[in-house]
Amino acid sequence: MKRSLQSKIAWTLTGLAFAAVILSSWILNATDRYHFLQYVEQNQKLRNDRITEVLAKAYERSGRWEKTIGIDVAHFSELEGVHIHLLDAQRNVVWKSDELLEKSSQPKTGKEDSFEVIPIKSKDTIIGYAEISYTDPESYSTLDWHYKQAMRQGMFNTIFPVLLLSLGVSLLLSRRITRPLTEMIRLAGQMRKGNLGIRIENPPGRNELTQLAESLNHLADELQKQDKLRRNLTADVAHELRTPLTTLKSHLEALIDGVWEPTKSRFEACNEEVERLIGLVSSLESLTRAESESIDMNLEAVDLVDVTQSVIDLVLPSFESKGVRLEFDGNSSLPVPLDRDKWKQILLNLLDNALKYTGSGGNVSVRVSMDPSKEEALVTIADTGTGIRDEDLPFIFERFYRADKSRSRETGGAGIGLAIVKKYVEAHGGASEVESQLGKGTVFTIRLPIHSEVSK
Description:
Elements: H1 5-62, H2 71-79, E1 82-88, E2 93-96, H3 97-100, E3 116-122, E4 125-134, H4 142-192, H5 208-256, H6 264-291, E5 300-303, H7 304-322, E6 325-329, E7 335-338, H8 340-357, E8 363-371, E9 376-383, H9 409-412, H10 417-427, E10 431-437, E11 441-449
Parallel strand pairs: 6-8
Antiparallel strand pairs: 1-2, 1-4, 3-4, 5-7, 8-9, 9-11, 10-11
Helix pairs in contact: 1-4, 4-5, 5-6, 6-10, 7-8, 8-10
Domain HAMP: 175-228
Keywords: ATP-binding, Cell membrane, Coiled coil, Kinase, Membrane, Nucleotide-binding, Phosphoprotein, Transferase, Transmembrane, Transmembrane helix, Two-component regulatory system
Main location: membrane
């Protein structure tokens, strides 16, 4: 059974906390044990010195060793887990503390260690010996032994509450971390099912989860946009094909049924519809080439002003016949790596759009300049035509998208020209921009790098 990410994070944090507690306890215990052993060693020395000192004074009071000398020392020492064997100067046993007392109150925690023989002196003369050992093998007295047990019990009493607390905190943290991820998984699942209208609320703060949420919301926006374009593409292609095919079918049926005479004008009308289909297929082929991963770019260093001027001269008669004024501003030369044929197609498409949507008496201006700060060449094509609605601007460079919802071939075309413009400009390493106000006109801006790598 797979564990959830929340449980994995929770157990990982708990494990880390457990390891930290154990390590800290081990370090604390080792440090405490070192200092405790130092204390026991010093305390043992002081206790031994005190025992020999008391026995020496008892000897001085009696002048000799007797069975009853120092019996009180033996009694209290046994209570503390200290065993004493009193020997005279010839090392004969005077008494043993554990034999003098019928029963010791010290709990037995291990085997007795070897005795430490300490001389008993009176006026710098050895008058006897005290063999001292401890019930605890590590030379702990009863109080020392109880202190050690209390210290060990305290450590265990501290570990378990800390582990329980760390487990609770880990669960809360893991839930807080995984909650946005769970929401994102739900969003991704809805997107997979085709529900592209939902959005995830950004987590608080500015971190990786917030960036992930923004990326998913942006992905949903783009998928929704592409889904809309896909639906429009299907409808537009069907419309573009249906119109000439329907017209051609009606003409042929009229000729077959004898409604029309097979005159030259009738065949020319049919030929126009065939040419219309051929033109649509040619446009689609051009778009396919423009959208291919590798575009055949014949780049050469040319003067952008001269190349643009030649295209202006080519279309100028069409503008004059419609009564639209065409102006060009580009006096100084501007060398740019350029594909002449593709640049010509870019300008023809943009100028054709400007001419279609600008009425008689209007104005279209083309300007070539340079942006020194970015080392880019700027080409702007501005018209005083009908303009584009704000809601149409984000989609204007998409294939088959037309702001003219009437789908008129005479005004709207097939909706492929601007898509080709965008792809060819990007193939040059540049970018396309558009600004427009409804009823006032449109400005297309093309940015071309002067020195940069381009798509090939």
